[in-house]
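Quick sanity check, Pre-mRNA-splicing factor SYF2:
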Amino acid sequence: GSSGSEEEARPAAAEAAAAQRREERLRKFRELHMKRNEARRLNHQEVVEEDKRLKLPANWEAKKARLEWELKVEEKKKECAARGEDYERVKLLEISAEDAERWERKKKRKNPDLGFSDYAAAQLRQYQRLTRQIKPDLEQYEKLKEQYGEALYPTSDSLLHGTHVPSKEGVDRMVADLEKQIEKREKYSRRRPYNDDADIDYINERNAKFNKKAERFYGKYTAEIKQNLERGTAV
C-alpha cells in the first residue's frame, strides 16, 4: 500500500516541479519583454532628442549657455542690491589678477577694426555691433519659458507665423533703434563739399563716385602712368 502511494506521489511531484519551472520561465520571459519595451522606449526618446538637437542652429548650445550665464548674473546683482553691496566690486573680489589680465587681452583681440575690406565684411561687422547692443529682457524670457516650455525653442518643423505677438515695449525699442541707425547713416551719407580746384575727370555724379573708388584701390599702381600722360612723355 505504501509503495502504491509513493508511485502516485511521484507523478504529482514531477508535475508540480514542471509547473514551477514553467512559471519561472514565464516570469523571465515577462521580464525580458518589459526590458525590451523599456529599451525601445528609451531608444525612441534618444532618437527624438537627437533629431531636435540636429535641427537646432549650430551655435544654439553657446547661446543657451550665454543666456543661463546672464540669468545667473542678474540673480547675483539682485542679491548684491538686497545686501546693499556693489555688484562690480563683489565681482572683482572674486576674480583673480591672472583671469582679469587674460580677459582684458581677449577683449582687445575681439572684433578688431581692420578697416574696410569689402561690403560683406562691413555688413557683418555692423550686424555684430548691433547684436551686441541688444539687451534681452531676461524676466520676460523666463515667463515665456514657463508658458511655452520646449515650444519656445523652434525647430525646422515648427510653425512660427502667427504664434508670437511682440510687446509694445519691444516694438518701441525696435523703432527707436531703427531711427537711431537712420540718423547715424544720414550723417555719413551727407554730400561732401565740392572742390573747385579738383580735376574734372567725370561726366556725371555716378561716374565721379566710380572714379573715386577706382582711385582708392588702384591709384598707387596708375600714378606713374597718369604723370607720364600729363607730361606727354608716355610711350
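Posting the structure with no commentary besides this: Residues 2-55 form the longest helix (54 residues).
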